Amino acid sequence: AQKVTQAQTEISVVEKEDVTLDCVYETRDTTYYLFWYKQPPSGELVFLIRRNSFDEQNEISGRYSWNFQKSTSSFNFTITASQVVDSAVYFCALSHNNAGNMLTFGGGTRLMVKP
Amino acid sequence: DAGVIQSPRHEVTEMGQEVTLRCKPISGHDYLFWYRQTMMRGLELLIYFNNNVPIDDSGMPEDRFSAKMPNASFSTLKIQPSEPRDSAVYFCASGALRGSEAFFGQGTRLTVV
Predict the structure, then answer these.
(1) Tens digits of per-residue pLDDT, A35-50?
(2) Which among B48, B56, B106 is the nearest to A44, CB-wise?
(3) Per DSSP, which regions of chain B are E strands?
(4) How far apart are CA A77 and CA B59, in angstroms?
(5) CB contact under 8 A, A100 and B43
(6) Which residues pair with A3 in a beta bridge?
């Protein structure tokens, strides 16, 4: 069975602080995919990143960066110099190759960035 | 591309009534998913289709729920009869390839009173 755990239910930071959102996953599959989605207050789910299990390279996109560590089954997300517009709920998700594109979501982390 | 389009955006209905939610996936995407989001259970997959064929409906809560995909550009999720515990946000999403990211619609907020 697959499982995604986001232990931080809520984080509050002040603008310009760096913040890391944790994601730990469980799967027995050797081929799988990891994702992060953002859900702003308006409610839609916005895709941020996809990573496959064979690619452990860290990725940076502007102020966003992701750290994938297979050894600890973690896929953490860091926002550098946070801004108020980053306030949202962030979801980590996992899918495995044998189940098409079925996503198992974590419970989400609500990030509040205060001015 | 307009993205995944869901309708209606909001639906308020009385217990016992039939509710139909609609979805138009992104053109060319072979996978379509229906998810439900509630405070208690988070985001959970209800059913997904590949090339219009239902592949896994194990997440459908009970027989009151049914989903169809008559063609590549349209899907429906029907609840009959609806109950207050069905109140949730229902998302439709589509994906191009096996293992690719899914793109979500704006969601339908369903309230059953």
Answers:
(1) 999 999 999 999 999 9
(2) B106
(3) 5-7, 10-13, 19-24, 31-38, 42-50, 53-56, 65-71, 74-79, 88-95, 102-104, 108-112
(4) 28
(5) no
(6) A26
